[in-house]
Design brief:
Blueprint: H1 7-12, E1 16-18, H2 19-28, H3 35-45, E2 57-59, H4 60-74, H5 80-97, H6 99-111, H7 113-127, E3 132-139, E4 142-148, H8 154-167, E5 174-181, E6 186-192
Antiparallel strand pairs: 1-2, 3-4, 4-6, 5-6
C-alpha cells in the first residue's frame, strides 16, 4: 500500500521520465536516421522526435513500451538482454555528448570512480525518484549499485552503468546483475575493472 508521506511512494503516482531522456534514447539509438521509425513512434507512442520543443515529461510506463519497441525494431537478432544493454549504453553515450553530460563527465573524471559512483546514484535518484537507489560498495576497481521499486529490463540499466563508467575513463572488465526480488523490482548491479 502506498504511503503518501513517503516521497518514493508519492512519486510512484506520477511516474514520468523527462522528454529529454526520451529524445536521448531515440538519438543514441539512431532513430534520427530512420523516418519510418519516427512516424511509428509519433503515432504509437505520441512522441514527436522532430519537435523543436519537447514535452517536460513522458509517462514511464509508455517509456518502457517504447524501449521494448526499439529493442524489437533495432536489434531483432540480438539476444534480449544484450539488446537492452545496447539501448541503455547508446542512450547514455549520447547524453554525455550534451552540455549537461559533458559537465558530469568532467566532474566524474576529476572525482574518480568511487565519488563518481556516488554522483551517479544521486543522478538516478533525481531521474527516477519513485524507486530506491543505493550504492552498496564503492572501492578500488569495484562498484555495486542496487535499484529497487523501478520496473524495467535490468540490461537497460547495465548499459547505462557501463557507459557512465566509460565516461569517467574506466573500461569495465566485468558487468553483471542479479535480480534479487522480481516482485519488488530489486536488482543488484556489480561492475569491476582493472
Amino acid at each position: 500500500m502506498l504511503n503518501m508521506e513517503n516521497p518514493s511512494d508519492a512519486a510512484r503516482i506520477n511516474q514520468n521520465m523527462s522528454g529529454r531522456a526520451v529524445r536521448v534514447l531515440l538519438e543514441g539509438n539512431g532513430v534520427g536516421n530512420r523516418p519510418d521509425l519516427q512516424e511509428v513512434i509519433l503515432k504509437r507512442f505520441e512522441f514527436d522526435y522532430r519537435a523543436s520543443s519537447l514535452p517536460p515529461s513522458y509517462p514511464y510506463a509508455r517509456y518502457l513500451q517504447l524501449v521494448e519497441f526499439l529493442r524489437l525494431a533495432l536489434y531483432p537478432d540480438t539476444p534480449v538482454d544484450q539488446a537492452f544493454q545496447l539501448l541503455g549504453y547508446r542512450a547514455t553515450q549520447t547524453y554525455f555528448q550534451g552540455v549537461g553530460g559533458q559537465v558530469l563527465r568532467i566532474a566524474a573524471q576529476v572525482m574518480g570512480p568511487q565519488q563518481g559512483a556516488k554522483q551517479f546514484v544521486k543522478k538516478m535518484r533525481s531521474s527516477l525518484p519513485w524507486g530506491s537507489h543505493d550504492l552498496v560498495a564503492a572501492r578500488a576497481n569495484y562498484v555495486a549499485y542496487r535499484k529497487g521499486g523501478i520496473e524495467g529490463p535490468p540490461g537497460l540499466m547495465l548499459g547505462v552503468l557501463q557507459a557512465s563508467l566509460e565516461a569517467c575513463g574506466i573500461k569495465p572488465d566485468r558487468l553483471s546483475y542479479k535480480v534479487e526480488s522480481p516482485i519488488e523490482d530489486s536488482v543488484l548491479y556489480e561492475i569491476s575493472w582493472l
